[in-house]
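hey can u check if this looks right to u? its 375 residues, i copy pasted from the old doc so theres a chance i mangled smth
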Amino acid sequence: MNIHAASTDSRVPPENNRLLRALLRQPVDATPVWAMRQAGRYLPEYRKVRERAGSFMQLCMTPELACEVTLQPLRRFRLDAAILFSDILTVPDAMGLGLRMNDGEGPQFERPLRTAADVGRLAVPDPEDRLRYVLDAVRLVRRELAGSAPLIGFAGSPWTLATYMVEGGSSKEYARVKGMMFQDAVTMHRLLDINARAVTMYLNAQIDAGAQAVMVFDTWGGVLTPRDYREFSLRYMRQVVAGLKRESDGRRVPVILFTKAGGSWLEDLAASGCDAVGVDWTTDMAEARKRVAGRVALQGNMDPSILYASPGRIRQEVQIILDSYGPGPGHVFNLGHGVHQQTDPDRLGIMVDAVHELSAKFHSPAGAAAPIQSG
């Protein structure tokens, strides 16, 4: 199942560290590109494996199948990274909340947290025990990639996990989780601290298993006021970042933080200790680069809906974003959020090829051979 054997694209280098260099703001030969949810339902080959697995959770919990769907997009496209196929809610599931993933209904927990007593019964799970299937998938993927692209591990932010754990599933108003936050802040902080410790252990276990970069998805931080965001979301992401292993195999392990609709807090995110900040399409990349002032790399930020457009329009948007960021290292091209289910896979391939082709002029050719610095 080696990725080299599966791919017929001789342009893929034997070792591709473009993403890792860019995340550390080091020279590259072209802007690296990958896509959130690059493995998923828009790919027909994914849907076949999902059907064979029988359920989404069974797919996640079978390392060989999770490895297969992680590698699928790299066989189609010249992506500069693989991101582990899993789900952010595996952590609260490992805490005993009973995760169900029913088609058409979204995630649901059988035992949501509604009281201080519920939170008091929580414990930080041992990743090598309750989440061993994820770590086994990391080991398999890293072996199969064989240096053709780095592997990104990930987890949900403490606040985002808490929203699902208290609401019991998806929500539009966040009434229960915000109710707990405003009525019993002590309990909410206790929950967020447990989540932060669990996420830290989980990401460190992924690093030990072979993840070469890690990303924290703060999907719902953007629903908070600026004051509450800093107290209930950013504070605990900073705790996670402070507890992560930052070197493995003699190399720096970059950390990416992404808050959806988080453009208002770029400066705060850049000061968190992370290496890179994800930016969605509601923030101009030139403005973002100016505001972070070289402290971190930036990842983003094409609207996923552009992939419904013509090939020419997709290339035009790629050029606009590259021009907006401008010359020099520190940019990882990505969508501002995940690939939509209805996306034509060929459109994603057009974006990937356009990034490589159009970005080379922004970088020195010497960047291709530059060694990764660990500091």
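DSSP finds 17 helices and eleven strands in the chain.
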